[in-house]
Design brief:
Low-confidence stretches: none
Structural class: mainly alpha
Shape: elongated
Radius of gyration: 22 Å
Number of helices: 4
Helix content: 55-70%
Strand content: under 5%
Distance between the termini: 44 Å
Length: 107
């Protein structure tokens, strides 16, 4: 094997301990082995301020807005007119997304 870490450490935990480790790892979006390794290195981990589903939804919406901006940029580079309404619509979408992001952080 071509692994950077060539040593393995095995240890046993009770069912309750494993469930606690699993819950803690899930809160920070990690697997139990990676969580234990980070903890062994003394890392301080905090759970994300935004849940995973909300983050994926925001990322999806940002990709859509990015596609719209790219299309408008291409049109402008081809010396075609870019309707002011389309630019304003993108601005509204970004403002709505920013508001959604702020609300997700406050939960």
């Amino acid at each position: 094997m071509n692994r950077k870490e060539n040593r393995q450490i095995n240890f046993r935990v009770s069912d309750d301990e494993y469930e606690r480790l699993e819950r803690m790892a899930k809160e920070v979006g990690m697997s139990v082995p990676n969580f234990c390794k980070k903890k062994a290195h003394g890392s301080r981990m905090k759970s994300p301020k935004i849940n995973r589903e909300a983050a994926f939804d925001i990322a999806r919406q940002l990709r859509g807005i990015g596609n719209n901006v790219n299309q408008l940029t291409k049109r402008a580079n081809e010396n075609k007119t870019v309707p002011k309404e389309e630019v304003q619509e993108i601005q509204k979408e970004l403002q709505g997304l920013w508001q959604q992001f702020n609300e997700a952080l406050q939960k």
